[in-house]
Prior knowledge:
By secondary structure, the protein is an all-alpha fold. It has one domain (74-257). The protein is 74% helix and 0% strand. It contains eleven helices and no strands. The longest helix has 40 residues, at 183-222. The protein is elongated and about 75 Å long. The termini are far apart. 15% of the residues are buried. Residues 1-33 have low confidence and may be disordered.
Amino acid sequence: MITRRGMTSAVLAGVLMMGLGGVTWAQAEASATDLTIPNGLSIKFDAASSPKAVSQSLQIVFLLTALSLAPSAIIMMTSFTRILIVLGILRQALGLQNIPPGQVISGMALFLTMFTMAPVWEKINTDALKPYIAEEISQEEMIEKGLLPLKSFMLRQTGESELALFFELANKPKTKTAADIPLQVLVSAFMISELKTALQMAFLLYLPFMVVDLVVSSVLMSLGMMMLPPMMVSLPIKILLFILADGWTLLIRGLVSSFSM
Length: 261
């Protein structure tokens, strides 16, 4: 039921809104004579006057394309994929539906990625970005020197079988140094290796929680409590064991240590 005080507040708010609307409308009418209504809108493209102007336009297009692909590069060329998969498997192993939320897991994976990739990004900044800003090296040298630390990081995480597979699929001779490996071959092999390593870690992480589920199910079955869902009993036990074992510290330590730096 609406009280008299609530009705008075609503009426007062309506009066204020009407008053503000009237003032705005009056100001709009007063300045209507100063407004100029455009007749139409047109977009004009000037023809390039020299090959240099064409090159600059193409560079802008390529830059915008690279910026749109930057999130994919962060996901597929860094440690983000492995960390995100392991954290997601942990949530499923504990039996939690949406806790921690997906945004929290993605945020943790992003900041752990920044932590693990900090030496690589620092080397890129030192060897490529700063000399290019100081005009000591050209743009081609900057790209080559900037990709080298990233390619070295990916090569250390990539398995030999995955790398040999994509060399074979690309019909290219196998090379061992990071500078000589084509980027498309190395990134593809790195992605497969990261998925493989993440699932291996997830399997080892899932085993102790699965044992708890089996023990709880067997105990409830032996007691004849078949109507009681085992998840209701095993969930608090798994959370308690994870806390007592200092699970977050062990998990983060294992994740960061799993990368060959």
